[in-house]
């Protein structure tokens, strides 16, 4: 079990940013400490492609060649329970642009967004919303052009919530927003708890559906 936990990653079906050996990847880091690994296996959901990439199933499991080394600063994140209750404000971590006019950054950034349980899309948003595995999010201030929201380069990033005990859980995976990253449009995320059975079957990591624990 420990070997599986050290090698598996949940991810959206997207490309990922390369690494820079001489630069840090987080604003609080004082020096570069980048772990370089190679991908051994990628498992995608076939329905993502067969449904034209717009009707859910946007998730993947990646197995890397070398186990991750966990420290006091690098820890695995928890899987959600089935039908996990979502908080109103969730945090997305990624390397995407801050808006459509800026460049991406080697520094990971944290983007808070607000849950929209009804997936209320604007008139200009014609992409699907009634998809079983979607979580819809909106920016905290849709009328403000510089309000934080996901943008190009954030696809595949994890969305997390933290409980009262300080335990972080990955509840969503960034799927897509609209072209131009408008602040008043919905962003779609894949619900992780929708695929707990598949994750269990593929990886053997089943603790959230078997009422057990990894700690």
From TrEMBL:
GO biological process: proteolysis
UniProt GO molecular function: serine-type endopeptidase activity
Domain of life: Eukaryota
SMART domains listed in its UniProt record: Tryp_SPc
PANTHER family: PEPTIDASE S1 DOMAIN-CONTAINING PROTEIN, PTHR24260
Protein name listed in UniProt: Peptidase S1 domain-containing protein
InterPro entries named among the record's database cross-references: CLIP_Serine_Protease, Peptidase_S1_PA, Peptidase_S1_PA_chymotrypsin, Trypsin_dom
Domain (Peptidase S1): residue spans on this chain: 1-204
Organism lineage: Eukaryota, Metazoa, Ecdysozoa, Nematoda, Chromadorea
Organism of derivation: Loa loa
